[in-house]
Specification:
The complex is a heterodimer. Chain A is built from 12 helices and 7 strands. By secondary structure, chain A is of the alpha/beta class. The chains are: A alpha/beta, B alpha/beta.
Chain lengths: 314, 325
């Protein structure tokens, strides 16, 4: 993945999430959704470090991970619109989308819910000797669930080919990590389970990719799991309707200076000598695709209510 | 035919399926060299090795999760939860992941997991090792629930469960592990969702399952002396429920008693009673449906107390007489 391709993906995710927030406010989308504005470098950095046959699991804040892994934004959006064309045929919504063909085994509505079954994907790879590594993404909040500890222990004991990648965005919903983590360094916990633990700048696409690449190949060669903590910031609110009363606007403005998109743009103009006009053209192209996705969803067929039982115990 | 125990029948079912299909593997706490807390998997480690008969740490949530992930990618895991009470430790994996994944993700994956878990009281193990938790699980769309009452059924139902593409919870009856019965060598299946009529009768229907089947049959024999002809239906599978068998028998006898070991309030017996009253059988009923169930208490330790809070043969017999009044 070239830096410009990574930028395209990051822009697609940003514009997708901004569109989702707008569509909610306008009443076009029901239910809930958690956007990942500000965390795009983690999603794309991890995806860029994986091989096509590797696996990824995600969280309630999963649109970005899925798009980074190659999902069709039209079908992600169609799921949010509850359409039959959506990845889960309108049964799952924002928090439940997967595509096994892309090695993407789902967002999850339960905080930490995907951590244990990501180990199952890795166990499958170990049993089949398929050479597949699983990237298990979750947040700082999920790192406080019991399953985090059970799974890291099991994965290390069995030397499963899995990377535990925590997106530390500073907040578990409204609770800052300072009030949720007895030890603010989540990567430290790796040592308790006898695996490497590293902290990276999660707003730097290149830093994330480099670190994940190194550890994914180690896991592939049988070295077992690792824990990678990516420090980032959730620029968006937790979910629809979050008034963000738990943090100051000053803090947000300061965090936005580390916006991963701005940093990528700065890299592309300074180190890759790309003119700003090229970036603007790429942004417009991405916006056109998102607009087209919305038009597609507005007329896409809804699921047949009589078909509600499909896939239950057949 | 050859007689083996309920536990041996389960072991044979797993072993035959593991020989037949390399995708089937087995994991749980102390299932390897120890052979499982109740000795069900004795010898399997020797035959299949530690890759396919995997000892795990005491981490029910991680075990369940590992099964869910492996099932999503094409393996067919069997897991043993040492006591069915411990299902509470992996409820998220069972109820929010295994049960829902197939549906929520639009049918893009199957979930071929078998969760084997010993259930029931009678061992003096008290409140956290003696429960019958079927009602927790039956209320969760996406899961199947099996409760074998004989060695023959244990083998056939578990083989069917292993071949099923959904998560199946098998609540093995720990007091039946050492009971013997006829079990054919080699392959056969007891299909999920088919009840068995254990005793035909025309006066009263008893709907039951698990280790209560034997007590109901005993009470039925005693009722014969009082001139009451009892039909005993062993559900074998709770989800999917063989409604047809239950309703047909209710229509035949017009009197129904439901017997289970699990506590009464919120128990599966209430569901059975409702299935009957909602059906055409309602018009045939000559008496109110009676439930004989476990008491609404944690299972007590003292053996006399423990025995007194689950349905006994005399209590079931009294119930039969009451339904006949």
């Amino acid at each position: 993945m070239t830096p410009l391709q990574a930028y395209d993906l990051m822009v697609s995710i940003r514009l997708f999430e901004e569109a989702i927030e707008r569509l909610f406010l306008e009443g076009h989308i029901a239910g809930t959704a958690h956007t990942c504005i500000g965390q795009e470098a983690v999603a794309v950095g991890v995806a860029a470090a994986l091989q096509p046959h590797d696996a990824m699991t995600s969280t309630h804040r999963g649109h970005g991970h899925f798009i980074a892994r190659g999902a069709d934004p039209r079908r992600v959006m169609a799921e949010l619109f509850g359409r039959e064309a959506g990845y889960s045929r309108g049964r799952g919504g924002s928090q439940m989308m997967m595509d096994p063909a892309l090695g993407f085994y789902g967002a999850n509505g339960i905080t930490g819910g995907s951590i244990p079954f990501a180990a199952g994907l890795a166990l499958d790879a170990q049993l089949k000797k398929s050479g597949r590594v699983t990237a298990c993404l979750f947040g700082d909040g999920a790192s406080n669930q019991g399953v985090f500890h059970e799974t890291l222990n099991l994965a290390s004991l069995w030397k499963l080919p899995i990377l535990f990648i925590v997106e530390n965005n500073g907040y578990a919903m409204s609770t800052p990590t300072t009030r949720g983590l007895a030890n603010p360094c989540i990567a430290d916990r790796a040592h308790a389970y006898n695996m490497p633990g590293v902290t990276v700048d999660g707003n730097d696409f290149f830093a994330v990719r480099e670190q994940v690449q190194k550890l994914v190949e180690a896991a592939r060669s049988g070295a077992g799991p690792a824990l990678i903590e990516c420090l980032t910031y959730r620029i968006s609110g937790h979910s629809r309707g979050d008034p963000r009363t738990y943090r100051s606007r000053e803090e947000e403005l300061s965090a936005q200076k580390q916006d991963p998109l701005l940093r990528m743009e700065s890299h592309l103009t300074k180190h890759e000598s790309l003119p700003i006009a090229t970036l603007v053209a790429h942004q417009k192209q991405a916006q056109a695709l998102i607009d087209e996705a919305i038009r597609f969803c507005e007329t896409a067929p809804l699921p047949d209510p009589l078909d509600y039982l499909a896939e239950v115990l057949t | 035919m050859r007689e083996i125990t309920y536990a041996q029948a389960i072991c044979e079912a797993m072993s035959e399926e593991m020989r037949r299909d390399p995708k089937v593997f087995f994991m749980g706490e102390d299932v390897g060299a120890y052979g499982g807390a109740f000795g069900v998997s004795a010898g399997m480690l020797n035959e299949f090795g530690k890759e396919r008969v995997r000892d795990t740490p005491i981490s029910e949530a991680a075990i369940m999760g590992a099964a869910v992930g492996a099932a999503m990618t094409g393996m067919r895991p069997i897991i043993e939860i040492m006591f069915s009470d411990f299902i509470s430790c992996c409820f998220d994996g069972l109820c929010n992941q295994a049960a829902k994944t197939r549906y929520m993700f639009g049918g893009q994956t199957t979930m071929p997991i078998v969760v084997r878990a010993p259930a029931g009281s009678g061992t003096g193990a008290a409140g956290q090792h003696s429960q019958s938790p079927e009602a927790w699980i039956c209320n969760m769309p996406g899961l199947k629930v099996v409760v074998p009452s004989t060695p023959y059924d244990a083998k056939g139902l578990i083989k069917a469960a292993i071949r099923d593409n959904n998560a199946v919870v098998v609540l093995e009856q720990k007091l039946l592990y050492r009971t013997k019965g006829d079990v054919p060598e080699g392959d056969y299946i007891v299909p999920l969702g088919e009840a068995a009529i254990r005793r035909e009768g025309k006066d009263v229907t008893i709907v039951t399952y698990g280790r209560m089947v034997a007590r109901c049959l005993e009470a039925a024999e005693q009722a014969k002396e009082a001139g009451i002809d009892v039909e005993v239906i062993d559900l074998r599978t709770l989800v999917p429920l063989d409604k047809h068998a239950v309703i047909a028998s209710a229509m035949k006898t017009g009197r129904v008693m439901i017997v289970h070991e699990a506590c009464k309030t919120g128990g599966f017996g209430g569901e059975l009673a409702a299935v009957i009253t909602e059906s055409e059988a309602f018009n045939y009923m000559d008496a109110p449906i009676l439930r004989i169930c476990g008491a609404d208490v944690p299972i007590p330790y003292n053996p006399k107390l423990e025995a007194s809070i689950v349905p006994t043969t005399p209590v079931i017999l009294d119930g039969i007489k009451k339904v006949m009044e």
